[in-house]
Structure formats: C-alpha cells, structure tokens
Amino acid sequence: MKKAIININGVVQGVGFRPYILKLARKYNLAGYIENREYGVHMEVTGTGSSLRSFLNHLRHNPPPAAEIFDLDCVFKEADGSPSAALIIKASRREGAVSTFIPPDMSVCDACIKELSSENDRRYRYPFITCNDCGPRFSIIYGLPYDRPQTVMNEFPLCPECLAEYNDAECRRCHAQIISCPHDGPVLSFWEHGREAAPGNQAALQKALDRLKEGAVVAVKGIGGFHLACLAGSGQAVAALRRFKNRQTKPLALMARDLATIRRYARCSGQEISLLTSREKPIVILRKNDPCALNHIAPGIRTLGFMLPYSPLHFLLLQEFPLLVMTSGNMEGEVIIKDNDEAMEKLSPITPYFLLHNRKIINQCDDSILMAGKCGPVFLRRARGYVPSPVKIAPGKECGPVLATGADMKGCFALARNGFVWLSQFLGDLAEASNYHFFLENLRWFENAFDLKPQAVVSDLHPSYFSGEIGETYAKKHGLAHYRMQHHKAHIYSVMAEYDLRTAIGVAFDGTGYGEDGRIWGGEFFVLGRGGDERVAHLKYFPLLGGEKAVWELERLILGYLPRIFGAAWKTYYQPDDADKAALLVDLCSKGRNAVPTSSMGRLFDTVSALLGICRSPAYDGEAAVLLEAAAAGARTQEKYPWELVGSCTPWEIDVDGMIKKISTEHRCGRNIPRMARKFHNTISDIIATTALRIREKYRENNICLSGGVFQNRIILDQTVEKLSAQGFKTFINRKVPINDGGIALGQVYGFILRGGN
Ligand code: ZN
Ligand code: FE
Questions:
Q1: Cβ(553)–Cβ(577) under 8 Å?
Q2: Nearest CA among 8, 633, 643 for reference residue 303
Q3: Contact call for residues 495 and 731 (beta carbons, < 8 A)
Q4: C-alpha distance from residue 126 to each of 17, 226, 311 (Å)
Q5: Could you tell me if 717 and 711 are in contact, meaning their C-beta atoms sit under 8 angstroms apart?
Q6: Distance between CA 483 and CA 458 in Å, rounded?
Q7: pLDDT digits over 550-599, tens only?
Q8: Strand runs labelled E in 252-352
C-alpha cells in the first residue's frame, strides 16, 4: 500500500471539489482524508500504487466543471499501518497566508432547473435552489476558506433534510456550502409603497408577475444587486425608466426566456450562442434582425444586448414573459444597489414595487457585457460570472504584491502577486462619490480575502484622476512607492500581459488619456518593451474648443477643425445654430486660447459623426461614434478617404485634414450618408494597417496589439484585424479584460513588471 500526500492550488473551494474527491476515492478504493486549506485543498490518500495513479490521472483530466487546478503537488510514501476504511472530509484549516481562489457567481445549473420545475420536488419553484455546481459565490462570501460560516448563508441553519443531503456522499448537494430549502432558507417578499404586500416565496412572486403584466416597473433583487425590470413591449414603462435613469437613448439590457426568443429579434453566431449559454451568462451584444425592431430599447442602432436567465428567480419570472428589460437598479453612473433599504429609498421615485429577499449581498456585481465579432469574444464589461477569477501572467513570478488603481471612467483596480492578477469588478465612473467609496470598500475586501499587502502602487499619469488620488493616498499611508503610467501605454501592456509578450507594436485608440507632453492623447502608435516605450506615431493634434465641453457639444469639434482647413470659407460647409457664439469660439481658438490640443481618435469619430449630422449632442459617452458605426453598417464599399503620414523622424503624424475636407465637400453635395460613414471606417483601418507597415519596416517588430475604446467598434476591429493578418502581422487583442478602460489596471501591473518595477 502507498500513501499520496497531495496539495492543490487553484479554484478548488466552492466548486464541489471535496465531494467530488469523495466519490472518486470510492471508485478507486482509497482511504484517508481531505481538507480545505488557505492555499486550496490538502489530502492524504492511501491505496495501491496503480489505483493512486488512476485516481490522480482522473483528477488531472476531469476536474469538476467549475474547478480550475493551477498547481498540483504530490509526494508518494509507503503507507504506515493499515488504512482506515474510507476517505473523510476534515474541518477546514487555515495556517498561513491565503493563496487559494474564490469562484465567481455561477448561473443555476440544469439539474437544479429540473428540480425547480418538478412538482414533486421539495424545492419546486424555490427561488434559492442551488448545488455544488451552481449559484452565487463571490457576491455572498466574506472570506476564505469557503465554508457556510464564511458566507451570508450563516444566518440560515440547515434543516434535518438539508443536513442529510449535506452529509450524503451520493447526493449532488454533499458538502455544498450554501444549500437551503423552503423550510430553512431565505424568502422573497413583495413590497408596495413601503409596505409588505405579500410575504412568502410564491405569493411575492405572483404579485411581482401581476405588476409586471400590468406594465409596471418592478425593482428585483438579484444575485449581484438590484435590477429594474419591465415588459420589453411596454413603451410607457421603458419611457419612465429612461426618465428616471436620465438615460434618454442609451440601450437597455434585455433578458430573454430562451434562445428561440432571442433569435426572433437578433442573429446569433455559434460563438455568440456559446457565450449566451455559458455558466457566466453575460449580456451579449447581438445584431438585430430588423434594424427597426425594439427601437425604444436601443434607438437608432443595429444591436441589442441580450442575456438569458441566470438565477432561479429569473427563471421563474421569465416563465411568464418571454422578454423583460433588465437594467441595473441604480442612477446612471452610480454603482448597482445591493441592500434592501437603500433600494427602497433610492429607487422609490421610479417604482413603488419591490421584489426583495433576505439573503444579503456582500459584493455587488453588475452583469458582464461581451461582444463576439469575426475575431472572437471581447469584453466590454467584466463583472458578474468572471470576478474574482484571476488573470494569469507569465513573467514576474517573483513580483511582490502590487496595487494598480486603473482609470477613472470605467473604474477597476488590480492586485497582483506571483503571476496572478485579481481584477475588481466594474466600479463605474469614479467621479461619482458613491463609486469612489465602492472602490475603497472593494479594495479592502480583496486585500483581506486573498491576504494581499501591496508593496508598490501604480496609477494613471493623469494629474486629476480620482484613481490617481486613491493610489497617492494609499502609497503615502503605507509608506510605499507610487508609480505613474501613461494611459495608452497601459492599454497596450494589458494586451501584452494576456499573451506573455515582451515586445510589440501597440495601437491604442480611444477617447481620452493624459499624455506625457501634457496634451490629451488617444490616437497612438507605440513600440513597447525594447528597453523603452517609444511613441512612434499619433493622430495630428487638433484643438478641442473648451476642453471637456467638446465631448458633449460636438459642434465645438467642427469649429476646431473647419476654419483651419478652409479658412474664412468654413461657413459654406457648416452653419452653426448660434453664429455669434461660434464666431467667438473660432476667434479664441485662432488666438490659441480656450483650446486644448488632442490626438484623440474618439474625438475624430465624434467630429465626423457631427459633420455628417448624425449626432451633435450625444446623450451618453460614445453615442456619436455608436451611431456613426450604425450608419456605416448600412453601406458596402471599399473606398476610403485621403490621409497622410507626415514627418521625417518619429513620432510621425497622421494627418487627416484631407479626409475632413473631402467629407465636408461630399456632405455639402448631399452624398449618401451611410456610404460616407463606411468610407470613414475604411480609412481608419487603412491608417492602422499602413502605419503598422511603416513601423515594422523601421523597427523589425511583427507583434501588434490593439486596445482602447475605439475597438469596441466592430467594423473597425474586424477590418483592422483582417488587414493586419493579411500583411503577416501577429495581431493580439484583449480577451480576458475589457478592451476599453476596464483593462487599464492589468496593463499598469504588467508594464510595472516589464520595466523591472520602476
Ligand atoms: Zn445546481
Ligand atoms: Fe482608454
């Protein structure tokens, strides 16, 4: 007889690992014990040499579905004495620093759905049904090791029946930490105008269904926070939602009963289907079948964001209605609400109806959002279902804990240790005071849960970013060094981190980022990681009249561009609403006042959108570009506009004056708008492909990384990747973190490591 002493590091707690080992041990006739430890699981098993080998083989190749093994260490010894009869689960222990992982929230599994729907099951229509393979984790956990006392389920002692399941090695709820049933678990309640109108699961659910059917908005407490739900067809409810959230035109997320329902409205590729039906159940951005369908949900654009039910409660709601609007319960820009009292207070102006429950939420977490174009899935928001799974990076195994505070508009921090990077969930715009606190609260949770004590801090270069201020304060308080990293370089480092690249050409196209010369960057080409990080090309600077104001009043962009190109004749190409104000702005600009120079590619998209009359006062960040893309999707042409790469030494400048001139002229002649929008898109991908060739010629670098908010534009992303690949480049984009500013924190960590910690 032999004894194997096994230590496993990875996502092995909260995923049914111990019961799985119990079953496996019986199959191979092994005895001994298993316990949860601060680094994962530890076990000592005895059996014949061949059965131990088969056991290990099985474990390595078929771990439980939600588990992920990063490291398995095994030592064989001669067994001493006669082994006990079976494998047992010992109480969890913690002796040192935590180095294991917490699983993300998982959508309800098929086996649970089956019980939920069978009348004879004791959990028939029970909204909190869960098992070893499914249910919330991250959102309900205080810390490690993952056992019931460390979750919000500590308030609900198990009834004898549940306890029997918990102890039954044959049951799929054996050692499942958060199980419950209608006798011992959390309960729903329905509230109207601040009074409890229906207590108890089924009565509360029925009331909510009734109110939804009447066309009302109902606030529903879910897994990671509150949703505001209403029938997708109820124009009135949707209009009320938009008024309340101050969100006139921004698309709203939809939850559909099943794939068949989604297909009625949108096309889905195989890849999109596998995302929709994955255990993570994110929102997936799909192309509408009919551009005008559900126009009140996503006005003027050709896509819709769909998700499938992911909690048992959603499943019960969607049984009644095929399609619900499910938008996060918060004010626009604020963090999703998690507590009952706060929800009743803050959401009461929009609805008197609340479907609540008494299971607490510890970590609030919005729905994640992905799109899948020709070049695969891309994150637009990484939160529920993915956080807190770490991103693995190869170099820096020796790297001490580092904190990176990310960027401001799409808040997200990162904590790194030994090649693992934990990224927080999406934290919203840090300019919102509540999100700022949410950032600090979460940082504390991550530090405690994973025993992370940063030894250095990295922040964005921007002098007035809140994330920079947080980093500064944190570093001071703990006596640590505080490093600053340029925004667009961090974008590219985030891609390099995912693919373990040491050198690359980087194309960072986005709306805004503070440059090393104090100007606003955003149309940038770099060569990174060759003992330096050179900016080799950028969009030629153009003036932003009134700085930030130009983000919302796009006329200011036109007034910054046209007079430079056409001189006094600019008025023949554009007639401003307020001629006096326009004249004043142009005059100030010509004197070099009230104008901030920028190389922002996002602002170039806005300029063209405004020039074509598509959008001049966006209602949300990026709307002008989104509508421009929608227009371009309606045209087919390979044509492009003129542009030039100028300058004898680097950084070269990308001069698009010729394009703006041509667009203005064509627009004056009344040319077809979608066709012009398409030609603009073709020009941008041509700029990338052509500039990349020039850079490769000079620097002999064949890796190219694309990142930044502009690449959320599917036409740009697909066309660019296609052109670069045709030119023989190895092209890389963000896969594990958002391609927008939500991925910056990962780049800050990796850039810090690549530069050797300075
Ligand atoms: Zn389940
Ligand atoms: Fe950015």
A1: no
A2: 633
A3: no
A4: 25, 19, 11
A5: yes
A6: 5
A7: 999 999 999 999 999 999 999 999 999 899 999 999 999 888 888 999 99
A8: 254-256, 266-267, 283-288, 303-307, 323-328
Which residues fall inside 5 Å of ion ligand 1, going by CB?
Answer: 109, 112, 131, 134
Task: Give the Cβ contact number of residue 268 at 10 Å.
Answer: 18
State the helix-helix crossing angle for 623-632 and 673-699, rounded to 10 degrees: 100
Question: How far is residue 405's CA from residue 744's CA, in Å, rounded to a whole number?
Answer: 9
Q: How far apart are CA 135 and CA 276, in angstroms?
A: 17
Q: Mark the residues whose beta carbon lies below 5 A from ion ligand 2.
A: 510, 741
- Contacting residues for 518 by C-beta, under 8 A, at least 6 apart: none
Tell how far the Cα of 134 is from the centroid of ligand 2, in angstroms.
35
Q: What six digits make up the tokens of 380? A: 């637009």
Query: What spacing in Å lies between the alpha carbon of 226 and ligand 2's midpoint?
Result: 28
Which ligand is in closest contact with the Cα of 520?
2
680 contacts 663 by C-beta, under 8 angstroms: yes
Ligand whose nearest atom lies closest to the CA of 486: 2
**C-alpha distances in angstroms, 53 versus 31, 73, 75, 78, 531?**
14, 13, 12, 14, 47
What is this structure's pTM? Answer: 0.95
Closest ligand by atom to 312 CA: 1
CB 480 within 8 A of CB 456: yes
Confidence of residue 532 (pLDDT cuts 50, 70, 90): confident
**Pairing state between β 595-598 and 542-545:** antiparallel
Q: Say how many Å lie between the first and final Cα of the chain, rounded.
A: 54
Checking if the pLDDT of 344 tops 90, the result is yes
Per-residue pLDDT tens digits for 95-123: 777 778 889 999 999 999 999 999 999 99
- Residue 190 in contact with residue 183, Cβ under 8 Å? no
State the distance from the centre of ligand 2 to the C-alpha of 721, rounded, in angstroms: 19
- Give yes or no for a contact between 153 and 117, defined as CB atoms under 8 angstroms apart: no
